[in-house]
Amino acid sequence: MITFITAVGNRKAYKDFDRVENYLKLTIESLRAQSGGSFKVIVVTNELPTFDPNGELCEYCLVDFPPPERNKKIESFSDEQYRIFMRDKGVRLTAGLLFAQKFNPDYVYFLDCDDWLSTRISSFIEKDNDAADIYVGAKGYFLNISDKRIKRKDGLVRFCGSTIAYKNEILFDLEPSLSFLSENNSKDEILDNCSNFFIERIMGNHTDWLRLADEKGYTVKEFPFFTTCWILGTGNNVSESDKGQLGLPIKLNVLETFGMSREFENTEKATLKEYLFETLSYLKSKREWKESKRKGVFVYK
Question: Could you report the per-residue pLDDT of 178-197, keeping only the tens digit for each?
Answer without folding.
Answer: 999 999 999 999 999 999 99
